[in-house]
Amino acid sequence: MKPIFTLWALAAWLCAGPALAQTAPDAADGKTLFAKNCAACHQADGRGIPGAFPALAGSALAIGAPAEATEVLLKGRGGMPDFSGSLDDADIAAVLSYVRASWGNRAAPVADAEVGALRTALQLPPASRNRFGNKH
User: Fold this and answer.
1) Cα-Cα-Cα-Cα dihedral of 49, 51, 53, 54, to 10°?
2) What is the pTM of this model?
3) Which of 3, 71, 117, 119 is the most exposed place for a label (fewest CB within 10 A)?
4) Which PROSITE patterns does the annotation name (predicted)?
5) Structure-model confidence comparison of residues 15 and 88, the more confident one
């Protein structure tokens, strides 16, 4: 009986998910930050504006490896500005996590530590503004 209980306890622990110290960014913050910094181009529904601003709903970039989308937010791309100076790691993680879980997208949240590690690897300084930074 004891081996079965141990097996069940181990299975429950493995399925429990990340520890509380690794909690996902606050979805409300991500939605607010997206509305303030991204929705003018990518639209509140994530569909973008065809021919001008790409859709994030169903986007391979949005739901793919977090590092690529994180780099786009940190460095910009094409006509998109960078947010490395105006959004801190937690803000960028919150926006990315919101996008990855909205409009039918189903991808794991992004942790602020992941953003910070990439910011360091790209040799970008910390953000000078944070929490609901100005819209670019």
Assistant:
1) 90
2) 0.76
3) 3
4) CYTC
5) 88
